[in-house]
Design brief:
Layout lengths: L5 E2 L1 H8 L3 H9 L12 E2 H5 L3 H5 L10 E2 L1 H8 L3 H10 L12 E2 H5 L3 H7 L5 E2 H11 L14 H9 L14 E2 L1 H8 L4 H5 L4 E2 L1 H8 L3 H9 L7 E5 L9 E7 H5 L1 H4 L5 H5 L18
Antiparallel strand pairs: 1-2, 3-4, 5-6, 7-9, 8-9
Helix pairs in contact: 1-2, 5-6, 6-8, 9-10, 9-11, 13-14
Amino acid sequence: MPMLSQYDDYQAARRLRVQVGALRRAAAGGVVPRPDIGFCWSRALVEAMDREAIRVFEEAPKRRTEYGEGELAGRLRVPVAAVRWGRHTGTVPAPDTEGGLWSRAAVEAMDPEAIRAGLTGEPLSAYEAAELLAAALGTPTAPEERPVVRPFAVRQLVAEGLLVDLSGNPTTTLVHPDQVAAIAARPGLAELLAPLAPLGPDQAAERLGVRRSDWDHMVRLGWVKPAEWAEVRFGTSRAGAVDVPIYRAGVVDSIPAAHPEVDWPALRSVGKGRRSPLAALSPAAG
């Protein structure tokens, strides 16, 4: 730290390597002399201060009494992925407080080495898992071609409870390679993944053979909800980005059977610019 000619309380505390709160309390208690240059101390006065006497006023760090997932991983010095996998395997017990957190006693009773050792294999990203599932279907992604299995499908497998998300980041998905391998070996893998294909609004309307305006009415009526939202950029700037709803293909396919009250052949034959028959319908109460 450069030698200053005068020090405020923050600078003095840093120079003395003490807590700024301790310095203030020591000053209030008369252990530290009053500032001699306005609200600052001169260098000579700071150098004459008794560091150990000031440290008597330091507060001991408060011990955390409850731990979230990230704090638990930090306390045990294990990856968050290991904590999440431990929750799945039972190595990490369920939170024991009403707020969904772990008490200090519960954390201190955990075995960090067992938790760390339980995570065998490097977690896979959603993209990597999708590539493995595509290869298992016999349709690995060729260069510059759209993947047969998309990361969206992997995230939906997590939502269905077939995979455990090991990531502590809500914008990132990580899964266990053993779980992915088990799914890849399942009979009927194609039938499992087909309903999990992602569809945007225009794709969903095309799949049902209706106009986009008809699809928008289905959304308004609450017949379908997006599985997730994706940011789509126009150009290179985020200023032109919009969030687009993404739907599961299987959910889209189920809409006609779920609403037999609609004359689907007639709806599909409505011409461009004509009012949608769905416009007269109101969302179901509740």
